[in-house]
Design a protein that fits this description.
33 strands, alpha/beta, flat, Elongation Factor Tu (Ef-tu), domain 3, TIM Barrel, 13 helices
Length: about 625
């Protein structure tokens, strides 16, 4: 078993691993796997319509999270329509009653609603905080934390923090990358009626498409806008040095195995950093125990990149497939089909072991992704690093085909094991007798205390209970998520009562502690909208980002105007910090032309416009 302890220091700067949760079960797994906070959707108005949860589940999650000092961020980050503002207000009240710690928001109308004092407001990545002035705007509004766009470099993030240190910075460190700048994508709404800003993105960017030259020729076809996944597992020290304190794993639609694997990997990296830098500490408490060695390449991914953090937009695309194709593992050196059975002889990469039940993918001659699951793996006599795969299906795979493994059955079994992750909060116990009053209390390092008292007959003839027995009984907490670290006993004449009486007192004290541990002190002052609203940096707001009268009026009070809904100019559907022409044709900086290119998606054709000075590409309505 691998164990990583969490250091605490009253003056330490807190670091937060923020995990996604599509439901209560995944959220609980994330907490056990090392998350310091989870973000989750409620019954409505979250930016993942397919990941809603009841407020009863949210309340249960808050109670469990708070017991280990972890926090719950509720997503309220869709654009709201006028008829939804009352629903949003009720949801905010319910969230506060459930113990939610923060709301992730996008719509400006939320800032005009009544925000209870225990709720922080966090500016969503959909707010597209792409400038220092915009970060200052949200800080001056009263946001405690800002979710930065995925496209920012380390240099830009550092400049943001130095210019506006009063707001905590949250950065995506793993998961899907949006090809478009956050909050500036309307292509899903145009093509399907499903708005990305309303939590119903159809992921048009993952579809096959064609890049067409000014002469009308197809330059490149494939999943051209599909990006690799973000992974900054080894850039955490650099991000911390830039002022980031919250490290966010994307994936509110991902399963619990993905979340567990990612959380353990990042948790161990953070703990290793804190071990060497004691001025930092985790923002939650407890000892995190992992029964497996994490490997983020073995759960869903499209390949990895950290190019944006380096200030680059090169080699971002995963244009062959938007699916999980797995790790490159072997090459076919012989293939034989006999009836409904297939035998493959493989040359396996050194250091890899294949197992019965593993699954593999390969690209066929026509470029399509295909796959199969192996029934049996046999050693190949006389050929080193070679094995025979037995398949109970007829499958013609050419010699020299490269195989990738996207299901490692042994790794999945380790992930699924009952004891694969566990978090234990350390408790101290105090047993104190003063005259005929016996008090027993349990407390944790956050200062939360639960106690119970009873009157005892100090003159009783019964022999005092041995201290070792009392400590052994107090260690029986009946909770796998708590462990007794220290027990102190103060009783001049010994504690004289029956075992059943003592056990009842112990259970009452622990129950009182659990009730207290459901509470977590707010990290910041209560939200209060400033009397004088700050100036919004952008002079013109796209009307597609204002779906209610309150938001329009709020922007106007902040000095911004709403753009006309109708215009003879082609509308921008997506703005990208990467460029198809640079990637598949010839960049302007290399002497190429960048005008006249088009993108065909299904039956739709869109114009491309390059902003070469800032290396951006826009997709326009034709």
């Amino acid at each position: 078993m691998q164990t990583t302890a969490v250091k605490k220091d009253g003056d330490a700067l807190r670091l937060e691993l923020l995990a996604p949760a599509r439901d209560l079960r995944v959220a609980m797994v994330a907490l056990d796997a090392g998350a310091d906070a989870v973000f989750i959707g409620g019954p409505a108005l979250g930016a993942r319509a397919a990941a809603g949860n009841s407020m009863e589940d949210i309340a249960s999650l808050c109670a469990s999270a708070h017991r280990c000092g972890a926090r719950v961020h509720l997503t309220l980050n869709t654009l709201l329509q006028d008829r939804e503002l009352d629903t949003a207000q009720q949801l905010i009240y319910q969230a506060a009653d459930c113990g939610v710690d923060a709301l992730i928001v996008q719509d400006m109308a939320v800032f005009t609603l009544d925000i209870p004092p225990n709720l922080e407001l966090h500016a969503s990545t959909q707010c597209n905080i792409d400038s220092i002035d915009k970060l200052k705007f949200f800080a001056e509004l009263g946001c405690a934390q800002a979710v930065l766009p995925r496209e920012l470099s380390l240099e830009e993030i550092k400049a943001f923090h130095e210019a506006c240190p009063q707001i905590r910075l949250e950065v995506f460190v793993a998961g899907a990358l949006c090809v478009g700048q956050s909050g500036i994508c309307y292509i899903s709404e145009l093509m399907t009626g499903r708005s990305a800003n309303r939590g119903a993105c159809a992921q048009i960017c993952r579809l096959p498409m064609e890049l067409i030259s000014p002469e009308g020729k197809v330059i490149k076809s494939g999943h051209l806008l599909s990006l690799k996944d973000n992974l900054a597992l080894h850039q955490l020290p650099e991000l911390i040095a830039c002022g980031v304190t919250s490290f966010k794993i994307e994936g509110r639609l991902k399963d619990e195995l993905y979340v567990k694997n990612q959380c353990v990997a990042f948790s161990q990296q953070l703990d290793a950093f804190i071990h060497d830098h004691p001025t930092y500490a985790r923002s939650s408490i407890g000892q995190r125990i992992a029964g497996f060695i994490p490997d983020v390449s073995k759960t869903f991914n499209r390949g990895f990149t950290a190019a944006y953090l380096a200030g680059s937009n090169d080699r971002l695309y995963a244009d062959k497939s938007p699916k999980f194709i797995g790790e490159s593992c072997a090459q076919v050196i012989a293939s034989k089909v006999a009836g409904q059975r297939t035998t493959l002889c493989l040359k396996v990469k050194p250091g890899l072991t294949l197992h019965n039940g593993d699954a593999f993918t390969f690209f066929a001659a026509d470029g399509t992704l295909q796959g199969f699951r192996v029934n049996r793996v046999d050693p190949h006599e006389g050929r080193p690093n070679c094995v025979n795969l037995q398949l109970n299906t007829a499958l013609k795979i050419p010699v020299h085909t490269n195989l990738r493994r996207n299901v490692d059955i042994a790794f999945d079994k380790a992930l699924q094991a009952k004891d694969s992750v566990l978090r234990q909060v350390a408790l101290n116990c105090s047993i104190c007798q003063q005259e005929n009053r016996l008090t027993l209390s349990f407390g944790d390092e956050l200062g939360r205390l639960g106690r119970a008292e009873m009157m005892v007959n100090t003159a009783a003839d019964a022999a005092p209970l041995p201290p070792a027995l009392l400590k052994e009984k107090c260690a029986r907490l009946g909770s796998a998520h708590h462990v007794l670290m220290r027990c102190t006993i103060s009783a001049a004449s010994g504690i004289k009562l029956t075992i059943s009486q003592f056990n009842a007192l112990r259970r009452a004290a622990f129950a009182a502690y659990l009730a207290q541990a459901q509470q977590l002190a707010p990290r910041s002052s209560p939200f209060k909208l400033p009397v004088k609203l700050p100036h919004f940096p952008d002079k013109l707001i796209d009307a597609r980002l204002c779906l209610n009268a309150r938001a329009r009026e709020f922007y106007q009070r902040c000095g911004a105007k709403i753009s006309p809904t109708a215009s003879h100019m082609p509308r921008v559907l997506m703005t990208c910090r990467n460029c198809l022409i640079k990637n598949y044709a010839r960049c302007y900086k290399d002497g190429g032309t960048v005008s006249g290119f088009k993108l065909k998606i299904g039956n739709n054709i869109f114009k491309l416009r390059c902003q070469c000075k800032v290396c951006r590409m826009q997709i326009l309505e034709d």
